[in-house]
Specification:
- There is one protein chain.
- The chain is of the alpha/beta class.
- It is built from 4 helices and 15 strands.
- The chain has a 6-stranded mixed sheet. It has a 5-stranded parallel sheet with strand order 1-4-7-10-13.
- Helix 3 packs antiparallel against helix 4.
- The two termini are 18 Å apart.
- InterPro entries: Hexapep, Hexapep_transf_CS, LbH_SAT, Ser_AcTrfase_N_sf, Ser_O-AcTrfase, Serine_acetyltransferase, Trimer_LpxA-like_sf.
- Pfam families: Hexapep_2 (PF14602).
Length: 194
């Protein structure tokens, strides 16, 4: 994922609302979605905590970021570490139980369902330590899937519900099962129109 240019808050909110409409056929309208979708609340809170996390020269900013992230987790049931890097138009549908670890990197236009874990597997703390997954653009992560360790999921991949992924996933593939195995994609499985 490349570093995104700075965007205005209003533009980002509009993009997130559009991602909710695209990712959830039951989405009824922007106002209602903004009020009731915990996935939107979690990503908006993450965007604030991430800014604090990367702020240089602001004493105590990381502590405040972690506290706000925990408050958000309590309110939404979604835990996103402020150190994670998440791209544009990210949407969590039925978000309860989603966990995204500190060194996770998530691309643009990613759709995540409830119970997804982007978790770590060992590795030491500190800069350069890649303990969590890197997820490409336009990826769909099915309900209850677990991506563990410093793996890479290629662009346009679909991870099936309940799948456990511990190895790299090629772009344009579908992964299913425990100790998931990849196969070529036959179409746009699980990917909403952009």
């Amino acid at each position: 994922m490349r570093k995104a240019p700075r965007r205005g808050v209003l533009r980002t909110v509009r993009e997130d609302l559009a991602a909710a409409r695209r990712g959830d056929p039951a989405a009824r309208g922007d106002l209602e979605n903004a009020i009731v979708y915990s996935g939107l609340h979690a990503i908006w809170a993450y965007r604030i905590t991430h800014r604090l996390w990367i702020a240089e020269g602001l004493p105590g900013a990381r502590t405040v970021a972690r506290i706000l992230a925990q408050v958000t987790r309590t309110l939404t049931g979604i835990e996103i570490h402020p150190g994670a890097r998440i791209g544009r138009r990210f949407f969590i549908d039925h978000g309860i139980g989603v966990v995204i670890g500190e060194t996770a990197v998530v691309g643009d236009d990613v759709l995540v369902f409830h119970g997804v874990t982007l978790g770590g597997r060992g590795g030491g703390p500190g800069p350069g330590s890649r303990r969590h997954p890197t997820v490409g653009d336009r990826v769909v992560l099915g309900a209850g899937s677990a991506l563990i360790g410093g793996i890479t999921v290629g662009d346009d991949a679909v991870i099936g519900a309940g799948t456990v992924v511990t190895k790299d996933v090629p772009a344009h593939s579908v992964v299913t099962g425990v100790a998931g195995t990849a196969r070529p994609r036959s179409g746009r499985e699980g990917v909403p129109e952009l």
